[in-house]
Design a protein that fits this description.
single chain; 564 residues; alpha+beta; Beta-Lactamase; 5-stranded antiparallel sheet; transmembrane helix; Sensor-like_sf; Methyl-accepting chemotaxis protein
Length: 564
């Protein structure tokens, strides 16, 4: 017999033995699996049946008048749930009262339900007496059945019956027989395939030299990716030694070429990664440069706006200082008015005291007093001056409010101060107007007094003292008005000084903002210049990376003829 026939026979016998052993093992394993599967199905279907009973019949199990109930539902001869279990699972199901069947889907040879028959004694001992589940084979109506029994208990925990599900052993054997047929068929197919493979292997072994020659030819063409036959390498003759030498040569060259290819690809991958990252970095830096330039321009614009605000604030500060000086002058004038009013009051009192004794002297003093009373015109002039100052202050406050509005957020504080100044100016104007009105009344009274002085002298004995009293009261009111004007002007002066200090602080703050904005603009410009220099450096790196990739591509083209 040729080597090819011997090899085929040995492999075929081995396959037959292996298939038989494998088939037996598989049959045993499958039998155990089927038993476990059937037991699992019994447990599952048993639980399902109990759930159906609990859902359909509410209440506890109980025995009443020799019959089995669940809640208020009579179970004896009620096969609805039993038949539903049979329909869904194909299994037997029975409800026992004690050891006697009262509802079942098991039928005898005549097709009648096996109501009233007893359970197996082993089952009764395990379930009824010991209160445990029973799993095992039982004989029912001459048929062997794989069964699962569960005790049924009343609300006191006493066992009143059993719940049974089972499957005929005949059905189990049918499944095992079908599986055995499948295993035998699979083994036969495996043997046939094994015989065919054995024939092919034998044919392959006889052509070892041809295979070796083809491998060497592939190596000579640069293809080191093929794998040499293992049996050639395990041969003990010259062919085996040559095969080992060829394999050693293949392995050495393959490792060298493989390392070169891997390093080339790694270089190419790194270069691509570097190019990609450098390009992204270049885009990011250009974006940073553009943003920095915009920031620098914005800071320069901010600096210019702050400078304009500084100039405007300085002008406002000058106006406020001028207003403060005028307010001080008005304060001095109001003090002089007060002094004159007090002097007028003193003279009126003295005149009243001597009027009764010296008529001629009283007449002369009256004329002098009338002449002196004309000094009230100065009050009118001073009140007009105050009105002018109030009008100028109001105009200044309006201009300050306009400047504060144009300054935006930076001018909000100054806007509040401008409103306060405008309010003070309006109050001053109202007070001055009131003073003019009073002064007008006084002037009119003095004129009237001059016109009727002769008549008053004639009736001096009867009415002069009352007239002097009135004159004294008028002097007192004049003094009080002067005090009021003095306080009003003093408040105005104080407010002007506070406004000047606030504007001075605002000017200082604006100067600091201007300085900070200038520093920021210079720093942003330096950053933009350095960013541009960095972009140039990155562009140089990109060019170097491209040169490296070109070198790598040339090396890869050189070794692409080798296959590993």
């Amino acid at each position: 017999m040729k080597l090819k026939g011997r090899i085929s026979l040995i492999i075929s016998i081995t396959l037959v033995l292996f298939s038989s052993l494998l088939g037996g093992i598989i049959y045993l394993k499958v039998t155990n699996i089927i038993d476990m599967k059937i037991q699992s199905e019994l447990n599952t279907n048993s639980n399902m049946g109990l759930l159906i009973l609990d859902k359909k019949y509410q209440g506890q199990w109980k025995v009443q008048d020799g019959k089995l109930y669940k809640g208020e539902n009579l179970i004896n001869n009620d096969s609805s749930v039993i038949d539903e279990v049979r329909e869904k699972t194909g299994m037997y199901a029975t409800i026992f009262m004690g050891d006697t069947r009262v509802a079942t889907n098991i039928k005898d040879k005549d097709g009648n339900r096996s109501i009233g028959t007893k359970a197996n004694s082993d089952v009764v001992d395990t379930v009824i007496k010991n209160g445990k589940n029973y799993d095992g084979k039982v004989n029912i109506q001459g048929n062997e059945v794989k069964s699962h029994y569960v005790p049924l208990k009343d609300d006191s925990g006493n066992i009143v019956g059993m719940w049974f599900v089972g499957i005929a052993q005949e059905d189990v054997l049918k499944q095992l027989t079908e599986m055995a047929v499948y295993i035998a068929g699979f083994s036969l197919i495996l043997i046939l395939i094994g015989g065919f493979i054995a024939t092919r292997i034998a044919k392959y072994i006889t052509k070892d030299l041809e295979v070796l020659q083809k491998d060497i030819a592939s190596f000579s063409s640069g293809d080191f990716s093929i794998k040499m036959n293992h049996k050639l390498l395990t041969r003990k003759d010259e062919i085996g030694q040559i095969s080992k030498a060829v394999e050693s040569m293949q392995s050495g060259i393959k490792d060298i070429v493989g390392n070169v290819i891997e390093e080339t690809r790694a270089i190419e991958s790194n270069v691509d990664t570097i190019n990609e990252r450098l390009n992204r970095l270049n885009v990011d830096i250009e974006s940073i440069s553009s943003t920095t330039e915009e920031l620098s321009a914005g800071l320069e614009q901010t600096s210019a706006s702050a400078y304009e605000m500084n100039e405007t604030s300085s002008a406002i500060e000058s106006k406020v200082e001028e207003t403060s000086e005028k307010a001080k002058s008005g304060k001095l004038a109001s003090r002089e008015i007060k002094l004159r009013a007090e002097e007028l009051k003193v003279k009126a009192v003295n005149s009243q005291k001597v009027a009764k004794d010296i008529y001629d002297k009283t007449q002369k003093n009256m004329i002098v007093s009338i002449e002196k009373s004309k000094s009230i015109e100065k009050v009118k002039i001073l009140s007009e001056t105050i009105l002018k100052i109030a009008a100028q202050t109001n105009l200044l406050a309006l201009n300050a409010a306009i400047e504060a509005a144009s300054a935006g957020e930076a001018g909000k504080g100054f806007s509040v101060v401008a409103d306060a100044v405008r309010s003070l100016a309006e109050n001053s104007q109202n007070a001055a107007t009131e003073i003019q009105n009073i002064t007008k009344q006084v002037i009119e009274s003095v004129d009237e007094l001059a016109e009727n002085s002769q008549n008053m002298l004639e009736f001096m004995d009867n009415t002069v003292f009352e007239d002097y009293k009135t004159f004294v009261q008028t002097g007192e009111q004049y003094r009080e008005d002067a005090v009021f004007v003095e306080g009003l002007v003093a408040d105005f002066s104080t407010t002007s000084e506070e406004l000047a200090r606030s504007i001075n602080n605002m000017v200082t703050t604006i100067n600091e903002i201007t300085s900070a904005a200038n520093d920021g603009a210079i720093g942003s410009t330096n950053i933009a210049e350095k960013t541009i220099a960095m972009v140039d450096s990155i562009n140089t790196l990109v060019k170097e990376a491209k040169n490296t990739k070109e070198s790598s591509d040339r090396l890869e083209d050189s070794i692409s003829e080798f296959k590993v």
